[in-house]
Design brief:
The complex is a heterodimer. Chain A is mainly alpha-helical. Chain A has 3 helices and 3 strands. The longest helix of chain A is centred in the middle third of the chain and has 13 residues. The model of chain A has no long low-confidence stretch (mean pLDDT about 90). Classes of the chains: A mainly alpha, B alpha+beta.
Chain lengths: ~100, ~375
């Protein structure tokens, strides 16, 4: 297997070559890569791949890793059923997310 | 060109296509703000009958050929949309709305419960009926912006992302001279303000008051699921909320469900005035969840993987601000589309490009001028 064929985002099956292409086309943040390739849009919401992507951005743009903007974090932390939020099965009314 | 959302990238594309030398300035990335934080429905039946719908209908013409024209998959699909009516009162109101829409040229059908559930079997048995508009479509807003950007570059446009505008310099006779950015000064005769919710910030640089306010919409994203719905469905109640802010204060539970090309469902949306706060709230999200389950009960066992919120550029009359500004030679507005930016993106780009190149447009922009707000003072 070639290095560029390695899948970086397992949920959306996005390969290393696609991430690098997006960087070459001007994406310099994790969110920009996400909007272009869907990497980080899947079930795990980028829990694994965002670090690898940050490293790739750093490698191809020459920017230090600390300067790569982090992705936006949003609830929920892990997938939850719709009914636990609203309607009859609602688990926790008035509780803050 | 200030702003790299669906509006800014569209204006850039149509200008570059006409051979105009254009530079797009975007303070973050392409479609980083509002354009990537909403749904992608070209919802014609939610437009205000009259000039607003006319503009959207013009835009629809462009959408049909756009994918081929820019050679980029923007996930354009025309499956129509449905507005779900929950009771007789809403049904009576929708009779009037559909009549008005038909007058402006949009053919919207009223369906009873049986007809509605034949089209979308997943709809609840408890609904009253629905309206159906076959011309409505969907697009992926991020791919739309990226595709327009790529096509604009092929026509010679330059794109500076992560470049913030920090000032605008004028000649003495109120004529645009240059734009100061974090990457240096750019000399130009024309500036287009397509900064969306940040358009007032740009206005301030030349002492211009632009009445656009951020309005938050919270959404949820479900996991990828086998097809439940074949087209976007939205609570008909939404129509009333959209044009009557008084109703939004009392009742905000009206969900819009969009099946995306990838198989995730996007479910929105709240309409709140909370400044520039992009956080999601438990209350907002659970209201949407509740309303969505009421329309499509099957949803209750589906997982959500993310919540998010975007800020829409709201204007008090629901119309965008487009065109030249009196007394400011070379300054052009293209902002304030609220939730209609995706649908109005192609036509806005085409008209603004026409205005810059020809000095005037075939489709009158009179009702969209900024001056409509200023004359009250």
């Amino acid at each position: 297997m070639k290095e560029e064929d390695v899948i970086i985002c397992r949920c959306e099956e996005i390969r290393r070559s696609e991430i690098i292409q997006a960087i070459k086309e001007g994406s310099v943040t994790i969110d920009e890569i996400k909007r272009r390739t869907r990497a980080g849009m899947g079930l795990c919401q980028g829990k694994t791949c965002r670090r690898t992507i940050a490293q790739l951005i750093s490698k191809y743009t020459g920017k230090p890793l600390q300067q790569i903007l982090p992705a936006t974090f949003r609830p929920p932390i892990r997938p939850i059923k719709l009914k636990s939020l609203g309607g009859e099965g609602n688990c926790c009314p008035k509780q803050q997310m | 060109m200030i702003g790299g959302g669906v509006i800014g990238t569209s204006v850039t594309y149509y200008l570059a296509k006409k051979g105009v030398k254009v530079l797009l300035l975007e303070k973050e990335g392409i479609a980083a703000g509002t354009s990537s934080a909403g749904e992608g429905v070209i919802f014609l039946q939610l437009k205000k009958p009259g000039i607003h719908l006319k503009l959207a209908l013009e835009s629809t013409k462009n959408f049909k050929s756009l994918e081929e024209e820019i050679d980029f998959k923007i996930e354009y699909r025309k499956n129509g949309t449905m507005l779900i009516v929950q009771n007789e009162k809403e049904f009576e109101a929708m009779k009037i709305v559909t009549k008005e829409l038909r007058k402006t040229g949009l053919n919207v059908a009223l369906l009873d419960k049986k007809q509605a559930r034949e089209k979308e079997p997943a709809l609840s048995e408890k609904i009253f009926g629905a309206t159906f508009s076959s011309e409505d479509a969907q697009v992926n807003p991020m791919y739309l912006s990226l595709g327009l950007t790529k096509a604009a570059i092929s026509f010679g446009a330059k794109i500076f992302t992560h470049t913030k505008v920090i000032g605008i310099n004028m000649h003495r006779l109120k004529r645009i001279k240059s734009v100061k950015t974090t990457r240096g000064v750019i000399f130009t005769n024309v500036v287009v303000n397509a900064a969306g919710i940040y358009a007032p910030e740009i206005g301030k640089m030349i002492n211009l008051d632009i009445p656009i306010i951020p309005r938050r919409g919270q959404l949820l994203v479900t996991e990828v699921v086998p097809q439940i719905l074949s087209r976007p469905v939205t609570a008909a109640k939404y129509l009333a909320i959209k044009y009557n802010p008084e109703i939004a204060k009392i009742e905000s539970k009206a969900a819009a469900i969009e099946p995306t090309e990838n198989g995730n469902l996007l479910i929105g949306s709240t309409r709140e005035f909370v400044g520039f706060d992009k956080r999601t709230t438990y209350e907002g999200i659970s209201d949407i969840a509740e309303s969505a389950i009421t329309m499509v009960p099957k949803l209750k066992n589906i997982n959500i993987i993310r919540t998010f919120a975007g800020l829409r550029p709201y204007t008090s009359d629901g119309l965008p601000i487009l065109g030249k500004v009196k007394g400011l030679d070379g300054f052009i507005m293209a902002a304030g589309h609220e939730g209609d930016g995706i649908a109005l993106s192609p036509i806005t780009g085409e008209l603004i490009a026409e205005l810059i190149v020809n000095g005037d447009t075939n489709f009158s922009l009179e009702e969209f001028k900024l001056e409509r707000f200023l004359s009250d003072n």
